[in-house]
Design brief:
8 helices
Length: 250
């Protein structure tokens, strides 16, 4: 039986966390697969900690703790490191937010290229269906600008670099985890840049998306968009250094 290890970074999500975990554990999967949820508490408030403790005791999900808030990227990296210590090579690792913006019903669509042996990393694409409404259109345009910057840096041609849904084979994660050091939302472009630098086969899959507003707890801010460009600049330099090392005489 192959396992889909779902890493869920959690920071102050008492209203949605239990429902999100319930959907993850009930998600449809291809034959021969099972799901395992890994919650990483990134210094959450007492209400969220109580939900996490209940889920761990009642459903047996794995719970990891950051005593203080460090950021989404740090929580994701903690989850990755844990999974690599327990996973088999034919398992898979997926990032899933705890805020109900992303639907675990999309797991089979994401897994399909991996199961077929065509991908090392599968990125969700929220924009396969044109967005409706001005707020979603504005979000799409901003995301498209950041994705274009990422594509120009990496040489890839993806449509939604910022999508939370990123699905890895375990061997692929072992190849890139040493390249990951971003603490906040900069982890998204860094993952894609590392995948390109390491020569991973990157595919995309259409996914649904139910965005929430800042009044509902959305945490990404303007400075995180700016950070994307800092990360891409750093990753471009790292890629150039790696290329020089490969081609330099022994």
């Amino acid at each position: 039986m192959r396992t889909l290890h779902v890493v869920m970074p959690v920071y102050n999500e008492p209203a949605t966390l239990a429902a999100a975990v319930g959907r993850v554990l009930a998600a449809p999967l291809p034959a021969g697969w099972q799901v395992r949820a890994v919650l990483v508490d990134d210094g959450s408030d007492a209400a969220t900690k109580a939900v996490i403790a209940d889920l761990g005791a009642r459903l047996g999900v794995t719970t990891l703790l950051h005593p203080q808030n460090r950021g989404k990227g740090a929580a994701i990296r903690t989850g990755f490191a844990h999974v690599l210590g327990v996973a088999a090579d034919d398992d898979a690792i997926l990032i899933q937010d705890a805020d109900l913006e992303y639907d675990p019903a999309d797991f089979p669509t994401l897994l399909a290229p991996l199961v077929a042996g065509d991908a090392d990393l599968v990125l969700g694409n929220r924009w396969a269906t044109p967005p409706k409404g001005l707020k979603r259109l504005a979000h799409r345009l901003a995301n498209g600008f950041l994705t274009l910057a990422s594509n120009l840096t990496t040489g890839l041609a993806v449509h939604d670099m910022e999508c939370c849904f990123k699905l890895f084979t375990v061997p692929a994660m072992r190849r890139i985890i040493g390249d990951l050091d971003e603490e906040r939302f900069g982890i998204e472009p860094q993952i894609v840049a590392a995948a390109a630098r390491r020569g991973l086969r990157v595919r995309e899959a259409p996914v649904s998306y139910a965005p929430r507003g800042f009044d509902e707890g959305k945490k990404i801010r303007m400075k995180d968009g700016v950070r994307v460009f800092v990360v891409l600049w750093r990753e471009r330099r790292r890629t150039k250094r790696a290329a020089r090392a490969v081609h330099s005489p022994a």
